[in-house]
Specification:
The protein is mainly beta. It has one helix at 67-72, and strands at 4-8, 14-24, 30-37, 43-44, 48-51, 55-65, 77-86, 99-107.
């Protein structure tokens, strides 16, 4: 399950917050690694999660796109992909690595700057912001 919110952070980057759930249907603890792809420059804050046996883990994943990449992007909705892979489940352990791919979307809000703002410049024309 994926749920996202978009905002601009202090550095000028656009951040989308995704809520991701992963299920461990085995009887042993599992470690998963989260990755994201789809746009050059994307960075992911939440990477590793440990899931208890027969449990569900909720992950809050912060995905950021630097302001320079935002300025290059002409799209407001860009497809991205989350990859969840099991850590330490290589062929040496006698198991096939599990990789799950989930499609999602990275949103660039309409009010995202199309040019760098100067220090002290007042943000204007943002929907919902007082003038």
């Amino acid at each position: 399950m994926l749920l996202w919110l978009a905002r601009q952070v202090a550095s000028g980057a656009i951040e989308n917050v995704h809520h991701i759930q992963t299920v461990n249907r085995t009887e042993t603890t599992r470690s998963d690694r989260l990755g994201v792809s789809g746009i050059d420059g994307l960075s992911l804050a939440a990477r590793d999660v440990t899931v208890a046996p027969a449990a569900i883990a909720a992950i809050v994943a912060s995905v950021q796109l630097p302001s320079a990449a935002v300025q290059r992007s002409q799209e407001r909705s860009v497809p991205v992909q989350f990859d969840v892979s099991e850590v330490g489940s290589g062929a040496g352990a006698g198991r096939v690595p599990v990789v799950l791919r989930e499609k999602s979307t990275f949103l660039v809000p309409r009010w995202a700057p199309t040019r760098p703002q100067r220090v002290g410049e007042v943000e204007q024309n943002r929907p919902g912001w007082p003038d």
